[in-house]
Amino acid sequence: MAQILIAGCGYVGSALAELLRDAGHRVAGLKRSADGLPVGITALRADLADAGSIEAALATLAAPIDVAVCAVAADAGDDAAYRRAYVEGQRNLIAALRARAATPRHLFFTSSTAVYAQDDGSWVDETSETAPRDFRGARMLEAERVLQESGIPATALRLGGIYGPGRTRMIESVRSGRAGIAPGPPRWGNRIHRDDAAGALAHLIGAALRGVAPPPILIGVDDEPADEAAVLRWLATTLGVAEPAVGEAAPGARARGGNKRCSNARLRAAGYRFRYPTFREGYGALISGP
User: Fold this and answer.
1) Taking the CA of residue 240 as centre, how many other CA atoms within 13 Å lie in the half-sphere pointing to its CB?
2) Other beta carbons within 10 Å of 51
3) What digits encode the pLDDT tens for the residues 61-89?
4) What is the pTM of this model?
5) Exposed site from 8, 69, 200, 227, fewest CB < 10 Å?
């Protein structure tokens, strides 16, 4: 039984906490508010922007921290919020961990495929160039450097677009008839179900605890990059509604990011097997579920 810290125990972190708890580990979730943590998770209240509050919270844990996960989310969509959450927050967390008598065996960070700027539909893997075009990818890449320079064995899991329970915007846009398909060639996107994001982290943590250090960088996406038009048409067929019209956009729709196909070959080689290997299984479960 290991002591595991999850800093930023939110959408993915809470699902991860439940998996680790059910596997018999002691799990502590660090958040600004202790509300909303799963049953059986030790609540630590701290703000990653405040190094002192992190040290004070960690001081309440008697056992050494074997593994730490930084799964924080920015509280706003601007550069300052991204820097505060991902760069400064991670730097403060690492400093607080290093101030303890024993440092963790491994650190994990939930990064993003936004670190890649490829926009030509090409395949991307962990060796591909990272030259982000906006602050989101730039701050994630900066946070990865903080992680790798910590002196503690570490892994950044670059997650694609996360969907799952409570994140059904695309389904509802198709169901309501608000979705539209942009004309032109395919625009490739990369996804991962929340349960697979958490499952992949749990798998990698288990490997680290067994002494098998995961690679420093892994891409966390499902098996099949998908053209958004194909996804929308599949959803319409599955829901039994009319296909979205070409050339129409949903009111208030967010601009699509990137046009690349990310490979999960290295994550699969590390032994992870997906619960939802493509969007069909993942969205299908959301449509048919409670």
Assistant:
1) 2
2) 19
3) 989 999 999 999 998 999 999 999 999 99
4) 0.94
5) 227
| Long-range contacts of 36-44, Cβ-Cβ distance < 8 Å, separation of 24 or more | 37/9, 38/14, 41/9, 41/14, 41/17, 44/5
d(CA 82, CA 89): 9
Task: Assign domain 3-165+191-223+261-275 to its CATH architecture.
Answer: 3-Layer(aba) Sandwich (3.40)
Tell me the percentage of the chain whose pLDDT exceeds 90.
88
Please, which residues have CB within 8 angstroms of residue 290's CB and are 6 or more apart in sequence?
none
Q: Where does the chain have alpha helices with state H? A: 11-22, 51-58, 79-82, 89-98, 135-148, 169-175, 194-209, 228-239, 265-269, 279-288
- State how far the alpha carbon of 57 is from the alpha carbons of 29, 43, 116, 165, 249, in Å: 10, 9, 35, 30, 47
DSSP designation for 114: G
Of 198, 134, 138, nearest to 162 by C-alpha is: 198
In the structure encoding, which two tokens stand for residue 229, read together? 């038009």
CA distances from 91 to 55, 85, 87, 169, 255 (A): 13, 10, 6, 33, 31
End-to-end Cα spacing for the chain: 33
| Residues 176, 155 contacting (CB under 8 angstroms) | no
Would you state the pLDDT for residue 248?
A: 52
Give the residue extent of every domain in the chain: 3-165+191-223+261-275
